[in-house]
Design brief:
Shape: elongated
Distance between the termini: 21 Å
Radius of gyration: 18 Å
Low-confidence stretches: none
Structural class: alpha+beta
Strand order of the largest sheet: 1-3-4-5-2
Strand content: 25-35%
Number of strands: 5
Order of helices and strands: EHHHHEEEE
Largest sheet: 5 strands, antiparallel
Helix content: 10-25%
Length: about 150
């Protein structure tokens, strides 16, 4: 298990790749974000995007899943107070393969909870062309290594 002290500012952790399908886009959108350009290929042609696109919330959910499986499940994670920023920079299309990564931006030890460190990170999802489709800044709480002695 990784503790707060096992990270370093500037460290980038690759979290893997995921290819999104048309069926997943429509299924998610029908349940959570039923805008025409997420659920109907014909109506999407007349939209700003000109084609079916994934919901930004779906992209954020995919990022979170990959962060948990690729990093958080192997750490002493103590939760998060939330995000400072979330940006959807380019549309995610059916068949896109997203590469997800997390970079440590800032580390601070907690003054009120000595067993906890606070990590600010930059999360990104890039498509198969290397274009950033999602960017976020998050704050996470991580357990510190027990003091010896």
């Amino acid at each position: 298990m990784l503790f707060f002290e096992d990270f370093q500012v500037g460290q980038t952790i690759e979290l893997g790749n995921y290819t999104i399908t048309k069926e997943e886009i429509i299924e998610f959108a029908l349940k959570y974000d039923p805008q025409p350009f997420h659920i109907d290929e014909e109506k999407a042609k007349d939209s700003f995007f000109g084609t079916l696109v994934a919901s930004g919330w779906q992209t954020a959910g995919l990022y979170m899943r990959m962060l948990v499986e690729g990093l958080l499940n192997n750490t002493v994670s103590m939760g998060s107070p939330g995000l400072e920023e979330l940006r959807w920079l380019k549309p995610v299309l059916p068949g896109d393969t997203l590469r997800v990564r997390f970079t440590v931006v800032e580390m601070t030890t907690s003054r009120s909870r000595p067993n906890m460190g606070i990590l600010k990170g930059k999360g990104e999802a890039l498509n198969q062309n290397g274009e950033t489709v999602l960017s976020l800044t998050s704050i996470g709480f991580f357990g510190r290594k027990p003091q010896q002695g």
